[in-house]
Specification:
By secondary structure, the chain is α/β, with parallel strands linked by helices. It is built from 14 helices and 15 strands. The radius of gyration is 21 Å and the shape is globular.
Length: 391
């Protein structure tokens, strides 16, 4: 198959639409559904991300994509009891490593992952398919599917769930092209390998970056490689916990990603874990309610006439002081940036979310100020020397 006709492009008025190869055959098979233009953009970007994560860590990897940027990305480390609960998989029994990777990728920012396109580094197994089946999602791409897993996925969306199989051995042309306004752009593909060598130039007083932090920094940098720029990524425990994508200002990236990382941690607090939801409430409604409860608009779910529809027992307000006290317990977070930090204010914001390890290109005229701010908090920061813009 050299080309595949699509229903329409980015929007319904953009017709005709297709994907095709100038040479050779498409490296994919559509096993179910009819993926669209944006679905394929998410699928191919996500596939590159998880393939690279698997190569860098040796662990199964998964990512949850929305609008050509990851909402979450993770490797297949086991889930503890708390993470299983906040990701809504504590009723699923033992999960495979690939299922753990997807639970982490989907669960880090469930608001953004709603209606995602999933990419898996390994053959989709039954455990992973069962998790996917219960989530609101547009489709999945993987190098293969166990027969029973494929049958489970074919039951989603009344048989219209997009299931794509990609040839894991496919290698694209080293020169890539993109057309904008009738004009063709050409560049070499970003084939940069992200490994420990990128973290060798530690410029802070604290030179210690333990192995777990190196894995988290690799996850952050690989995630940024496929995230719309400007972008910043917080990572901890084998997964991205906050991604700030597509912001024009670096500090806005850091704040956005930091707020998402904070929400991830706040969801693990006793106040949130103790919420008693009414029977039969949907998963999305639970996610929305938690997001409001831990945010500034908490009265939207605590006002009389509102809370009764959500909770069995009216929760106490999660005060700003209580939230700050809980956030102060978050530590050893890794932070990657796709370009240099121009001011120390980014480091100040990162510190509020427990950041201890940083990887960024360096090269700002204010590098001294950024390093000085890191030293104030005993952070270890590596200058990679490499920018990771993606558009």
């Amino acid at each position: 198959m050299k080309e595949l006709e699509l229903k329409y492009g980015c929007n319904p008025n953009q017709k005709p639409s297709k994907i095709y190869m100038n040479e050779g055959e498409l490296p994919i098979k559509v096993l179910c559904g009819r993926p669209g233009y944006i679905n394929f953009l998410d699928a191919f970007n996500g596939w590159q991300l998880v393939k690279e994560l698997k190569k860098a860590t040796g662990l199964p990897a998964a990512t949850s994509f929305k609008h050509v940027s990851p909402a979450g990305a993770a490797v297949g480390l086991p889930l503890d009891e708390t993470l299983a609960k906040i990701y809504w998989v504590d009723d699923c029994g033992e999960l495979s490593p690939l299922a753990c990777a997807y639970a982490r990728a989907r669960g880090a920012d469930r608001m953004s992952s709603f209606g995602d396109f999933i990419s898996l580094s390994d053959v989709c197994d039954v455990a992973t398919a069962k998790l996917i089946k219960r989530e609101v999602s547009d489709g999945v791409i993987a190098p293969g599917y166990e027969p029973e897993a494929l049958e489970i996925l074919k039951q989603k969306k009344k048989g219209n769930y997009a299931v794509i199989e990609i040839d894991p051995d496919y290698e694209p042309n080293p020169i890539e092209h993109k057309e904008v306004f009738g004009i063709t752009f050409e560049q070499g593909r970003n084939e940069l390998v992200i490994d420990d060598e990128l973290l060798a130039n530690v410029v802070t007083d604290n030179k210690e970056i333990p192995e777990e932090a190196k894995i988290d920094l690799a996850i952050a940098l690989i995630t940024l490689k496929y995230t719309q720029s400007n972008s910043v990524c917080y990572a901890k425990g084998g997964q991205a916990i906050g991604i700030g994508a597509g912001q024009q200002s670096r500090i806005h990236c850091t704040r956005l990603a930091g707020q998402k990382a904070d929400n991830w941690w706040l969801r693990q607090s006793p106040k949130v874990l103790g919420l008693q939801f009414v029977d039969g409430i949907g998963r999305a409604d639970r996610d929305n309610s938690i997001d409001l409860y831990i945010g500034e608009e908490y009265m939207d779910v605590l006002a009389d006439g509102a809370w009764e529809k959500i909770f069995k027992v009216k929760p106490e307000v999660f005060t700003a002081e209580e939230k700050r006290a809980w956030l102060d317990k978050m530590e050893n977070v890794a932070l990657g940036s796709d370009a240099f930090f121009p001011f120390g204010d980014n480091i100040e914001r990162a510190h509020k979310s427990g950041v201890k390890y940083i990887a960024q290109p360096g090269g700002s005229v204010r590098d001294d100020n950024v390093i000085e701010t890191c030293n104030k908090y005993n952070m270890a920061m590596a200058f990679t020397g490499i920018r990771l813009f993606h558009h």
